[in-house]
Automatic annotation (TrEMBL):
Cofactor(s) it depends on: FAD
Reactions it catalyzes: L-kynurenine + NADPH + O2 + H(+) = 3-hydroxy-L-kynurenine + NADP(+) + H2O
Biological role: Catalyzes the hydroxylation of L-kynurenine (L-Kyn) to form 3-hydroxy-L-kynurenine (L-3OHKyn). Required for synthesis of quinolinic acid.
Underlying gene: kmo
Listed transmembrane segments: 414-436
The species this protein was found in: Nonomuraea recticatena
Metabolic or biological pathway: Cofactor biosynthesis; NAD(+) biosynthesis; quinolinate from L-kynurenine: step 1/3
Signal peptide: none
Protein name from the UniProt record: Kynurenine 3-monooxygenase
Amino acid sequence: MNVAIVGAGLTGCLLACYLGRRGLDVTVYERRPDPRGGVVERGRSINLAISERGLDALRRIGLEERVMADALPMRGRMIHPVSGPLDFQRYSRDGDLAINSISRGALNNTLLDAAESAPGVKVLFGHRLTGLDPATGTMTFETEQGDVLAEAGVVLGADGSGSAVRGQLLAHGRVEESLDFLDHGYKELTIPAVDGEFALDPGALHIWPRGTSMMIALPNPDRSFTCTMFWPTGGTASFASLSSPAAVERHFRAHYPDVVPLAPDLADDYRHNPVGLLGTVRCAPWHADGRVGLIGDAAHAIVPFYGQGANCGFEDVVELDRCLEESGGRWERALPLFEERRRENTDAIAEMALANFVEMRDKVASPMYRLVKNVEHRLEAALPGRYVSRYALVSFSTVPYAQVRRRVRGQRRLLGTAVAAVVTGVLAAGVSALRSSGRRRGLTRR
Ligand code: FAD
């Protein structure tokens, strides 16, 4: 049976590698030209944090080393306040666990190479899907030579959050969808290398938390940093509200003062780089007619604040491959089974990713947050394997996301008690110190 994968992005390429290894005849259709030609769309470089879930999927087919060759480990968050010293917060107690910064383009290119060299896989660029009959698997593609028809026994939509495959299923009444856009968008800036060196610590994910908005920066192998601003799309403190280079500079001097001397092209980047939208895609079902399926962002795009979109898409691939194995290669069984197993997990990470936006932009700078993280690291050390923080479960394990959510709810009480004990202990120590200093000065009532 021939399989069509629509979209040669991260999920589509990895899926092609997995299905090729199963001996299937796979054609990947991609609307863009071959990205290995080199040109990256301005302001859309996007570097990703790849963590254990993504690495696990790559490891299973021998791709981890190749991908990690281009990656930079980040062992914690570096918080940049408006004034005062930087604050490095390790992701794990010993600082031994890291998430990995990698350019989406470089990762995509590595996966394209791997897909093209997998047995039975071919990739056709410049093919934009514009029509699909889910009952027959007949697809229409817009190409430079005009419209082209193709047929496949199975059609898998790995064509991202704005999926045309999902759009076709919607038009044929096979799925329902909801799109919840955030009232924040994103824009990229660059901090170049200074004299060939990183301008900031490359071992950290940098965060400028500013209450209702924030900026982050991830290191690149060429020693630059890609910064991503997550700002409101409307209102007085939005992207649109800074309409001149002087206004941009004034705003950055007031709110991100340490960035100004490091980003010489700040005003130009700000003016020319596009604002991207962010949102959560939910749809059901993820399959139709036993032969069409959705995977990755096409089925469940999420906001990027847990750094999990691509990791989750890679996990999808492992699960779909497993379902196919367990269904004896019968897609009409594998596709519903895949949805049954994955949905509660993708719902869970969608919710956790939204919650993490508030944590990153607002809470990470507070002393209480630092105290809680400190206590969490101590609990992890005192109860190894029994207490594991949510961040560690999401980023450094392959525990299913829904289980993570349940487990963290269970752990919350223990954390609350431990934090209260520390606070009470600190208060008690403070009171006793006050009392003894009072006694020394003869002030304490007896
Ligand atoms: P996509 O990467 O969107 O790929 C879809 C492919 O389909 C594209 O190649 C597209 O050209 C093609 N296509 C689209 N329409 C058609 C059509 N009609 N016909 C043919 N082809 C078509 N994830 C992480 O894991 N970690 C992170 O740190 C992280 N950070 C992020 C930061 C930002 C600012 C954003 C926006 C996202 C981030 N993500 C992160 C999410 C991650 O980028 C996505 O989850 C991931 O790219 C999804 O992969 P995909 O292959 O499913 O979809």
